[in-house]
Amino acid sequence: TMVRMARAFLTEKQMPRTFWFFAIVEAARRMNTIPGKYKGKLASPFVLVHGEGQDARTWFPLFSICYFNHSKDNTPSGPVKRSKHQSQTMDGIAIGRSVSNNGLLVYNPRTKKIYEAKGSYRLDSYRLPCSMYSSIKYDGGLFCSLLRDGNPPMEEKYPPGTRVERLDKSTMILRSGTVMDIPLTSAPTGDRQSDVRYSIQFDDGTYDSVPLSQMADIIPKPPVLADEGNNSSGLPPFLQPGQKITYEQDGQYVKGYLDFEDGVYYFGTKSHPLRRRFDTRTSIPNLRTQWADLCSQGILIPGHSAHSFLRTSTHASSSSTCDTFANLVSAVNLAKDCPASLMRALADSHPDREVWLQSYYEEKDGIESLGTFQRITAQQYRALREKGGPQALPSMCVLTIKRDENLMPLRAKSRIVVLGNHEERVWSKADKFAPVLRFDSLRFLTSLAVEKRRRLKQGDCKNAFCQGELPPEELTIIRPPPGDPDATKDEYWVLKKTLYGLRRSPRHWFLKIDGILKSMGLQPNRHDPCLYSGFLRDPSDPSAPISTVPITLGLYVDDFVYFSESDEVERRFERLLESSVKVDFMGPVEWFLGIHFTWHATPSSLKVHLHQTGFAANLVERHGMHIKAPTPGATPYRAGFPIDSIAVESKLDPDSPAMRARREKYQSIVGGIGWLVNCTRPDLAPVHTFLASYSNMPSQGHLNAAKYALHYIHSTVDHGISFSSGETGEMHVNIHFPD
User: Fold this and answer.
1) 382-391, long-range: CB within 8 Å, 24+ apart, which pairs?
2) What pLDDT was estimated at residue 637?
3) The pLDDT of residue 665
């Protein structure tokens, strides 16, 4: 039993058998706590020797990565205290407890020395030492020599404990597992029927046997180490020094920035984003080789994520491409930008092939589960054409990278769309029109919720345009998107429901969701057809009572926000809507229509701040105005230079290259300011009105005025609109009409 326990320690952490002594010691230490009968009573060997039970707080995961305080270095002349500019911590492998005190014994493979962690330390039990130290290599653990046959002993390529990853084609999920048993006989050369098999236990508890010929395909590829001479080599663009990151510390997420100094990467925090110096810094060991694992396990998140800032109770056990916080395909590990087509994304040479393959199957399986289309052969298609059926429309798969509120990669998204511009039918504007929620209605809905001291909640209808019913008179046939790995040469799809790209898809979806909401008792506002309110009723059970508390909802295509003063009404609404459409409810809204919602709750009040800090900072940086230091008390206008009094351009030809370049830059700035005005920055409305008047022929003076407005945005990047339930005073507005 002791040997089996020691073997399990080595196998679990992929440690070489040279550490057998520490595994045996820990196994003996734990077996000494197992109680047995002694003189008719239960007692453990530890109790019999020491008179008391072992303190369970001294137990720890053996061979875990350990970070401990190390402020002194041992030199031939004695201990030397490290300076404040040097790292005060060291990492290593926890191998046991000290016999002289309660300190932790930590072995550092780089220095090949054992240290005692007497003070503070932290264990990372989710990372394998072999992935952090190149000198640590698993060699099979404590196993006896295996007698294969009459041939001389040979080295086992895939010993027990070897980690594997295999893509489950039925669910398109990358499953991780461990080799548990190896074959004792080898197959005759060329005999595929008797291919020997390895027993694999996956992390979800299931078992499977894998033939030797397939083992090489499921072994995870080791990370490629980049040139150490380049400080940022081996790291993606979103993990370069100075980039925003969110880092897990003591069970909570902290927003900060990535820093690089003296060959070491640091996580730094600032009290204000415009400060030049960091308030605190924490080293991130081996970021170049471990960044993918840190991102996939949720320890490091690129950007200032809008996810919950409480650490989840479970951690990912492998460097999977799936996001651990949501049911989506994560984009944080992408090595290249978004590919132009599905064929390029799924090419064997593309480094992100597996990510985009999972993303495509997520989209295709989703619309197929809704019964959106039916496959037919070329012969069936020709029969439909002879009966007057329409010509097959081409389709394509649009690949995009969804970003968070700070414009950092978040999700790899695929969308199968029809090229509706090839459609022969002619539709009027009324046949295609579908309204969306106005931004002033969203602000009104937010203020109403805060006044009632309720948080807005958010929902998302999955594959919305694939749920609208397609009438029989709108028969539509399409070809599968080029690059579909499962499509045959003569395959066609007959659409049973609408699909993205069809001209009437928005209208069909709106009519469906509008009918569902009306059947539940919600009525649209006469000023905004996408703002609903009313008392809930169950459309499938007319005898069910109608709710006594109303619910209010704002709809923007397939995204919506809602609230009610009653938790029971909100839960009932979620149950009723889930029974009609495929929908995800995401709790309190944090990120909606490009606006970030920051909630602050106290026992007596509720506040929310609506802002677009990420977009504003990106707009300033895109036009090079982030280099200039922010100015406290800045205004959008330059003193003495009214925008409407700046001389217009009269020398340059409107079609000259210089004017075209200036016009493009000017319109880009004015358009970005206009988006801020429309959403969360009404303070920019006057300057935007003035600047927009000169969009066709802006002079250099107008361009300088637009850049000065960007400087004002840079100085007030986190400004927005705030609502508070505690404010009861009257609002005063001063209006001045110039002479």
Assistant:
1) 384/475, 384/477, 384/494, 389/475, 389/477, 390/424, 390/425, 390/475, 390/476, 390/477, 391/424, 391/477
2) 83
3) 92
| pLDDT tens-digit readout, 306-337 | 443 333 333 333 333 333 333 467 777 777 88
Q: Tokens 């590919």 appear where?
A: 339
User: What count of Cα atoms within 13 Å lies in the side-chain half-sphere of residue 7?
Assistant: 13
- pLDDT tens, position by position, 36-52: 877 777 788 888 887 88
d(CA 59, CA 62): 9
The pLDDT of residue 586:
85
Give the C-alpha separation, 377 to 738, whole Å. 72
Q: Report which of 462, 533, 555, 552 is spatially closest to residue 500, judged by C-alpha positions.
A: 462
Label residue 593 left, alpha or beta by phi (over 0 means left) and psi (-120 to 50 means alpha).
left
Is the pLDDT at 533 greater than 60, yes or no? yes
Alpha-carbon Rg for the chain, nearest whole angstrom, is 32
Kindly report the average pLDDT of the chain as a whole number.
81
For 554-602, the DSSP string reads: EEETTEEEEEES-HHHHHHHHHHHHTTS-EEEEEE-SEETTEEEEEEE-
Residue pair 533/551 in contact by the 8 Å Cβ criterion: yes
CA distance 578 to 378: 37
- Please, is 218 exposed, middle or buried when counting C-beta atoms within 10 Å of its C-beta (0-12, 13-18, 19+)? buried
Q: Given this model, what pLDDT does residue 231 score?
A: 44
pLDDT value of position 316: 34
Axis crossing angle, helix 657-679 with helix 613-622, rounded to the nearest 10: 170
In this structure, how many other beta carbons lie within 10 angstroms of the beta carbon of residue 462? 16
Helix, strand, coil percentages (3-state) for the chain, rounded to 5, are 30, 25, 45
- 3-class DSSP assignment, residue 166: strand
Cα diameter, the chain? 108
Q: What size, in residues, is the chain?
A: 739
| Residues contacting residue 275 through CB under 8 Å, at least 6 positions apart | none
Q: Rounded CA gap, 116 and 105, in Å?
A: 5
The amino acid that residue 555 corresponds to is: L
Q: How far apart are CA 393 and CA 93, in angstroms?
A: 60
- Which of 52-66, 185-199, 410-424, 530-544 shows the highest mean pLDDT? 530-544
**For residue 126, what pLDDT band results from cuts at 50, 70 and 90?**
confident
**Tokens matching residue 282:** 């924490």
Q: What phi and psi, each to the nearest 5 degrees, are found at residue 535? A: -105, 130
pLDDT band at 731 (very low <50, low <70, confident <90, very high): low
CA 355 → CA 334, 368, 412, distances in Å? 8, 20, 7
Q: What is the mean pLDDT of residues 337-345?
A: 88
pLDDT at 225 over 60: no
Secondary structure in 3-state letters for 327-361 = CCEECCCCCCCCCCCHHHHCCCCCCCHHHHHHHHH
Q: At what angle do helices 700-715 and 657-679 cross, to 10 degrees?
A: 30
pLDDT digits (tens, 9 = 90+) for 660-678: 898 899 999 999 999 999 9
* Residue 262 φ then ψ, to 5°: 55, 40
% pLDDT > 90, the chain? 17
Nearest-angstrom CA–CA distance, 499 and 418:
7
The per-residue pLDDT for range 688-721, each reduced to its tens digit, is 999 999 888 888 888 999 999 999 999 888 899 9
| Residues 6 or more apart whose Cβ sits within 8 Å of residue 568 | none
Residue pair 156/138 in contact by the 8 Å Cβ criterion: no
Indicate the helix (H) or strand (E) that contains 460: strand 457-461
Tell me if 142 sits within 8 A of 23, measured CB to CB. yes
If residue 290 lies in a helix (H) or strand (E), which one and from where to where?
helix 287-296
